[in-house]
Known about the structure:
- By secondary structure, the protein is mostly helical.
- The protein has a domain at 15-62.
- Helix content is 39%, strand content 0%.
- The chain has helices spanning 15-24, 26-31, 43-46, 55-62.
Amino acid sequence: MPTVFLHCGAPKTGTSYLQVLFARHAQDLQAEGIHYPLKAFTEGASDGRITSGNGILMANYLRPSLPPFISA
């Protein structure tokens, strides 16, 4: 089973900056065996823009059966 690392934090703690770095260097990470999923929500991060992150996807993944379903 692979190891999963999560980065999360309250506003103004640097999480958006980390997401920009991860998105911009996803190919470098992949070369080191680290998969950083690039989805529609990371496109802005790849360009250096602040994004809303992937908290909604994580919430739905962790609790898919609890209503209401959160959408982006």
